[in-house]
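so my prof wants the structure for this chain in the tokens format not the other one, which i didnt know existed until like an hour ago. anyway here's the sequence
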Amino acid sequence: MKNIKVLGSGCRNCEITAKVISQAAKEAGVEIELEKVTDIAEIMAFGVMSTPGVVVDGKLVHSGGIPGPESVRAWVRDAG
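here's what i got, hopefully its the right format
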């Protein structure tokens, strides 16, 4: 099971990003652990200057804006 973190203040784009990731995992039949990280210090520790950021298994894979569907599907597929 992959651990995926959405980094951000809880803004609308962060919420949409979390929903897109959850939906992609559900469609792929893959179980993920999805966390929402709102602590600024933790977000900065990943080097994210623009939210939302996405971290998969401890590795930053996206920051700044809602990720595209292809990116999300790739992250979820790799979770298998």
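also thought this was worth mentioning. Strands lie at 2-7, 32-37, 53-56, 59-63.
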